[in-house]
Structures are given as structure tokens and as C-alpha cells.
Amino acid sequence: xxxxxxxxxxxxxxxxxxxxxxxxxxxxxxxxxxxxxxxxxxxxxxxxxxxxxxxxxxxxxxxxxxxxxxxxxxxxxxxxxxxxxxxxxxxxxxxxxxxxxxxxxxxxxxxxxxxxxxxxxxxxxxxxxxxxxxxxxxxxxxxxxxxxxxxxxxxxxxxxxxxxxxxxxxxxxxxxxxxxxxxxxxxxxxxxxxxxxxxxxxxxxxxxxxxxxxxxxxxxxxxxxxxxxxxxxxxxxxxxxxxxxxxxxxxxxxxxxxxxxxxxxxxxxxxxxxxxxxxxxxxxxxxxxxxxxxxxxxxxxxxxxxxxxxxxxxxxxxxxxxxxxxxxxxxxxxxxxxxxxxxxxxxxxxxxxxxxxxxxxxxxxxxxxxxxxxxxxxxxxxxxxxxxxxxxxxxxx
Length: 397
Known about the structure:
disordered N terminus, DNA Polymerase III, Chain A, domain 2, DNA binding, eight-stranded antiparallel beta sheet, Beta sliding clamp, 3 domains, DNA replication, DNA-directed DNA polymerase
């Protein structure tokens, strides 16, 4: 294959030839690049942020990616002939390494920040940039970290992330609030129209005294979620996430990977004030039945509002919608209900989001006060250690 043209010599003092020279397994390198590449900013006005930072020392290659708001540092084993550092265009490297066959890859820094990559009969030179331009990434604090079980954190994120506001102007709603206590932890997210709140009791969080509240940005939660999904818990330390923070930064360590995120500033709203206290009418339905009915009826809801009407009458729940464009639809679910009739409107997508989060199994309890007050949904199961509820503002229909 043809290689890139040789680097032109420039007037600047080039890094010494031969600085950073390593051999690394293609499968191990690809695994770490896959983890890190989602942090790299695709469209950036700062070119260096499109690059990975490679640092080789002793028998490790450390890879760092950052978009200034968050960063991921990860590493893999490498045979280090010459320790050193270089930066390589992230997307191009990732796409190229994916196309190489399994085996050893050698990476070598050349003059003018060019990087040579050899694998079998393939020989490629990529245009890198000066290591000095790469932003400094904060180090994980040496003290004060808290261990959180991976399954617990993964579940809490999945049950709240969809309720985070995507409106940039509502700055303090662009994240979820993590509340840690010595024996419990909770996560809550809201966009002003709905609120998801999950609390896990019976936890044992060493190093937490009183109550520690931390606002975690949506982007960091998404990144954390995919890191946790790929955590294979092969080692003891991957059963836990180590969480720490300082004045400006949040740190999450999962096995050998460290995710950092800039903190969201500002005050999360007093969510406890909006949790319904006297929703005394309720109905219990199978999640699967409710999901099916909602998905069918939502096809005919107004496209902009997604509004469906829920009508509760003697032993039945009716879900209906209509729009001038597409027509109208109604589904009936038979279920015990012995309170006054009630008609209330909700955004169908918000209801579906919750059912997806609980896995669309078992039964769900819908609790109401009247047509003007917030409704509450929760799984109807006997899990005493986990309390999950979802509060929805009604719509005028």
C-alpha cells in the first residue's frame, strides 16, 4: 500500500526521532480506543481535541481523550522500547485500527509529530500534533473516594437519565442529582415536566457522613453508563466505581479507566416539594398491557404534544387520542378501580419512557389525585430495598 508522503521539514525544532516506540496488541488497543473515542469532540474549533494523547512508560500505554468538559484516561499493556508521548488523530486512528487484522501493532513517533503505525505488511504514517498542546487532565484525588457498586449505579442511571432536560438554558436541570448517605443512595432527574426518583436502601457506603449531594451532567452519565455496561467485572475492583470530586471536577474510576467531568454549577430544584403526598386514587395494570395500549394509541396523538387521555371508570382504564391529521384511537384495559371517575392527559412518550426503564415487566401502579395534579407511577413489586417513582405533570387536552 502507499504510505503518506514524508513529513516536510519545518523550521521548528522537531521532537527527537525515536521518542516513543512501542508494540501493542491490536485487540487490546482497539478495546481501549473504543472506550475513549466517544469522548473525543467530533466538531471542534480546537484541533488538538480531535486527537488521542498516547503516553508510554514501563510496560503500559496510557490513552487520554478530552473535549475540555470531560475526559477519559485508559490504558493497556505494551512493550515499550522507548518511553515518550505523542498525539494522533482519534477518529482516523480508530477507523484504521478497526480495519487491521489481529496481531501486534508497532507505533513510533517520528520527526515533526508524525506517527508511524506498522502491522504485518501495512505501513502508515499519520500527521500528529505537539504533545505540549494537549490540555492538562486532572488526576484522580488521592483521598476521599467513595466506592459504589457497579450494578447499583448502572440501574440508577438507566432509571433517571431520560428525565434530564435537554434545554441548555435550564442549566441546573442538565444533569441528575446523586444523593449519597452512609446507608442509602438516591438519584433524581427532572426536566420540569416530569421527575424520576430512585432510592436504594440498605447500602453500605464507607466514607460518607451525613449527606453528599452531587450534580452529574447528562453527558457524563451517558459516558459512565456505557463504561459500566462494558465493565466485565473480571476483577474485584471492577465490581465498584470509585467516585471522588474536587471544587471543579468529578472523577469516576472503573477498573483501569478514569472518567472526569466538569461539575455543573447551580442549585438543583427542591424536588422533595413536588413529590405527591395525597394521590389517593390508584389503579394497578400489567406493564405489558399498558405499554401495548400506549404505543397503539400514541400513533394517533397530536405529533407535537404526544398527548393521550387517560379515563378511569368503574373497573376499567381507557386510553385515547385524536388528531385532525391522523384520526383517533382508543384502547381499554380491564382492571379493578372503585374511585370517582377521572380524566387526565399526559404526554404518551413520557409514559412509555418510564415503562421502558422498568423493563416492561410485572405490574405498574398509577396514582392520581385529580386532573390538575401531578400523577405518579411506580413498579408494583415487593422490592423493599429499592423505591422508584416517576412523577408526571398533566396536560390540558
